[in-house]
Design brief:
By secondary structure, the chain is an alpha/beta fold. It folds into 2 domains: 293 residues, Alkaline Phosphatase, subunit A (3-Layer(aba) Sandwich), CATH 3.40.720.10; 64 residues. The protein has 13 helices and 9 strands. The strands form 2 sheets. It has a 7-stranded mixed β-sheet with strand order 3-6-1-7-8-2-9, sandwiched between helices. Strands 4-5 form a two-stranded antiparallel ribbon. Strand 4 and strand 5 form a beta hairpin. The N terminus is likely disordered.
């Protein structure tokens, strides 16, 4: 029973003239009645998981005629059964400029033409994740995080150990973190270097950058058109470095977030590496350390970790027998690990009661279908971040540019642009 004193105090707090206001306590239902203006906007996130070497088409891809939400989940996707309503398989996408499977992963997120630069045998453009990072990365400590599985499962220039799936505005490869232990410390461990020393090092970097920029500007007179283009790319790279230095400076004095993840002591391999990277991806998104990630996943070490003795490249050229069994085992473990990531993203709740999964646009796939077939890129889309139709098998018109899908995802998270890569427009029927 409430006393007169407690009732009087309650009325005082409710009084329109009171100088003290109750906080918006979720337990008392304030969240439900708060206006949209009082609720902070929940950020969108974008994640690209590249697996390389394609999939086992016979047991990973649904039958082309079996479309819609009632499609039969293939054996290779069986570990994702409980999440079937929350992802879609997309077929008939291609990168028309990727005529060689060994180069395709280089262009998975760019859709560029390898021969796009006259007189050069290699050309690339900005990747979809970096387009997203320009918009989504402004408020986070890291504009994007590029992760790399460490083994050379994705061929093409710039895809050795330590490099990622990401390409900058000048078409240059961006470095990636290939050790989950290093990623943990980058995200959550305080710097061991004194703040004034870090500021001094940053100032020196800026000084060197300014000098280089001045020297480069002096070279502009009398250059050929080709050299002018190369210098423009160089200036673009310098501007990207300037942006990075500015971000480092703005976050320098701010403490890193805490995490419930235990600090890893040793670098795991194969399956355990992917599982830990997935945990760190979820933690990075949960703490809003970044909103854009790419992960170039290991294949060779993954096979070794599950007892498969077939080499990754040999496995990709499978035929019925040992190689095909190896490919199917790879599919199963990748689907199982992906299911774990989905479960984790769904378990992390936002302020309004929705889940992290609901605001994340996630793409999982490869530049090819299987073996050397480039006409149907293995593509799985998940999460509610881009408004994609989920729980369906979607068969697009034959030879739809993969970049149409990336454009749809970019538009869906709020980045409105007409073209990306070799796109011809947003993918028809992809967005709900």
């Amino acid at each position: 029973m409430k006393t007169k004193t407690s009732l009087a105090r309650r009325n005082f707090l409710r009084s329109s003239t009171a100088m003290i206001a109750l906080p918006f306590l979720e337990s008392f239902g304030f969240r439900r009645f708060a206006s949209a203006a009082t609720q902070p906007a929940i950020p969108k996130r974008m994640v690209f998981l590249g697996i390389g070497f394609g999939v086992t088409q016979e047991t990973w891809l649904p039958k082309l005629a079996d479309t819609g939400s009632g499609y039969t989940l293939p054996e290779g996707l069986a570990p994702l059964k409980e999440h079937k309503a929350d992802f879609s398989i997309v077929q008939n996408t291609t990168n028309k400029h990727s005529a060689e499977a060994h180069w395709g992963s280089t262009y998975w997120l760019t859709g560029a033409n390898r021969y796009g630069s006259p007189g050069s045998s290699f050309h690339n453009t900005i990747s979809a994740d970096q387009v997203a990072a320009r918009t989504l990365g402004g408020e986070t400590r890291f504009a994007s995080l590029r992760l790399n599985g460490g083994d050379t499962n994705l061929n093409g220039p710039g895809h050795g150990p330590g490099l990622s799936l990401a390409w900058d505005a000048g078409g240059k490869p961006l470095s990636g973190i290939d050790d989950p232990v290093a990623l943990f410390h980058k995200l959550f461990s305080p710097s061991t270097m004194a703040l004034d020393k870090r500021k001094s090092m940053l100032a020196r970097e800026r000084s060197v950058l300014d000098a280089v920029f001045t020297d480069a500007k002096d070279l502009q007179k009398g250059l050929t058109s080709t050299d002018v283009d190369k210098l423009d790319e160089y200036f673009t790279g310098i501007r990207d470095i300037e942006v990075r230095l500015g971000k480092e400076e703005s976050w320098m004095g701010k403490p890193k977030p805490k995490t419930f993840l235990p600090e890893p002591k040793n670098r795991p391999k194969g399956k355990d590496e992917v599982r830990l990277m997935y945990d760190l991806i979820a933690a990075a998104l949960q703490t809003d350390s970044t909103r854009v990630l790419t992960y170039r996943q290991p294949i060779s070490s993954l096979l070794t970790s599950i007892g498969v003795q077939v080499l990754a490249h040999d496995m990709s050229h499978y035929h019925p027998g040992v190689r095909m069994l190896a490919s199917q085992a790879r599919d199963q473990v990748q689907s199982d690990l992906l299911a774990g990531l989905f479960t984790k993203l769904k378990s992390i709740k936002e302020a309004d009661g929705s889940s992290l999964f609901d605001h994340t646009s996630l793409a999982f796939g490869s530049n090819l279908r299987s073996i050397h077939y480039l006409d149907n890129c293995a593509t799985l889309l998940a999460g509610g971040g881009s408004g994609v139709r989920l729980g369906e098998h979607l068969v697009l018109p034959k030879d739809t540019p993969l970049c149409n899908v990336w454009l749809s995802l970019l538009n869906g998270i709020g980045i409105k642009q007409q073209r990306f890569g070799d796109s011809t427009g947003p993918a028809s029927g992809l967005v709900a």
